[in-house]
Amino acid sequence: MKHELYGCPCCSGTFGLLFSVNNTVRNLKEEAASENGWSCNWGIDWARFGRRDFLKSGAAFAGLSTLLPNGGQAQSATSTQATTVFTNGNILTVDDDFSEAEAIALRGNRILAVGSDGEVRAVAGADANIIDLGGKTVLPGFIDAHTHVVSGSVVDAIMEYVGMARYSTVAEVLDHIAQRVAETPAGDWLVFRNFDPAVQEGADALTFADLDPISTEHPIFVLNASGHLAYANSKAFEVSGVTNDVEDPPGGEFVRDADGKLTGTMKNNVAFLKIAENYPAMAEVNPVEGLLGLLDKWAKFGLTTVSELSLGALAQSPADTQVMAAAAQSGRMNARIRAYPFYTIGAEAWDEAKVMQGDGNALARIAGYKLVADGSNQGFTGLQRDPYLDSDNRGLAYMQPDELTAAALERASKGWHLAIHGNGDAAIDNILDTCEALREAGIDMSRVRPRIEHCSILHDEQIARMKDLGVSASFLIGHVHFWGIAMRDEVFGEEKVQLLDRCRSVDEAGVGFTLHSDFMVTDPDPLHMIEMAVTRRTWKEPDYILAPQETISVETAIRAMTSEAAWQLFSDHEVGSLEPGKLADMVILDQDPRDVDPNEIKAINVLETWMDGRQVFQA
Fold first, then answer.
1. Concatenated DSSP letters for 113-141?
2. How many CA atoms lie within 13 A of 217 on its CB side?
3. Enclosing H/E stretch for 284
């Protein structure tokens, strides 16, 4: 069987090329490269929102100010020291004992007290504002330990989602596009993302034959969930000046039919950029506004801390840090960000930019460094011990073992925490060999706190090595739910697929783990992710439970999206549990996830989200 090979779109190192035409991104990158008007740390005023004091020139601050929406105001809740008591509730603290309480008090942006109504009122004082929870459930704000929020937010701002979470068939996607055509003036672009015919029933690709009957007056562009493929109608080709005599660029392809005519399908961004770059919003969208807008949308999910696991991918330079800094200084952040500089930019470039682990503050911080060992299992580039089903292909090593170890040693020796992408079992072998080399070099592994991203295919002896080396796992649990049947029938087979996302096995072995969305791969809905891990039911065959021996308890799944995620992000001292002194991040639900049918956890309503002592969402 010949497989279509592709890597993880957010971890390939080339995703940001999609935005090479964006005016803001281009200007940031050019300024950073020239160093004109920039002093230490690319002009970011870390002193204003961070722990380290950097000098900044007037020109540098002017460059940052142009990104700040509404001129930019530093965000702080500490100036407002009003005390609020939430009482008569079911407060799940997610502390070490998973303690339950009936009341919690917030003062400013901190948790003042947690306990019984009498205890909390006594600490809060007579002037405290009292809110009756009426028996509702309170949890720590949810934390997604692996998203791509900086680069992904730009895509989200200008491309509409048509993925499997909303549309189960290709026909439904086409119907939705037709509906959007009817609502949109002729000539305007219609651009969509996350189309995935690998799991959405119907045709394997979209072509002119599918899209031209919908409209010949609107340019239509659809990005595949893999980031590897895209589709467009004839109008999009026409306005982009791409004709039948176009040559395939190196590494890309304009797919043709048997007669040599274009079909509308394109492979790799070097090809489809020739279409997408003509979409006006690609050049005009403001990355800071996109980031703030996405964080605002995610508040409805109860998310209060998210992550960027490939910082630098948007601008293909350390200039991405500027986008994060501008958002943090806007006064409008509705969730915290923990970011990981991406290895493809080069350690030297990050060092020259003076970007260091710990830079920033509780709103936005550099948390660690990201390395990538292999690609994507469903893209047949995850590195495997044995070939994929009905194939002689074993996937790809994005970094050779010696290269991976050398990069990890160089970063860890300078105090960096490491997050290493590994999907296939052979890639995980390489990662664990690298961690062994770190320990043998005398590096304190508790400081490195290494984590394996996705950690998809895992054997018993690898789990034992993880425990021994102090390595944790972060599971993209959507692999089980959305792609589980494809993983069984097309990627691994019935036997090997049992090794996918082994939540219970790592938990029983004492290995910490988290659940994540890998946005834009899946949407970051924590309650749905908790349900996926608890039930392991598959989207295509709801009665099929993939590896039922790996189901976990609701409490364990909640920990994976709160306290464990905070630990992985080096933020366990400030978020992840409801304890006095920690930051006032919490979510109020209409039901306790432990008390509902496990298949209905995702239907629980998020009533309110509080971040930094502020209500940032109310249903």
1. EEE-HHHHHHHH-TT-EEEE-TT-EEEEP
2. 9
3. helix 280-284
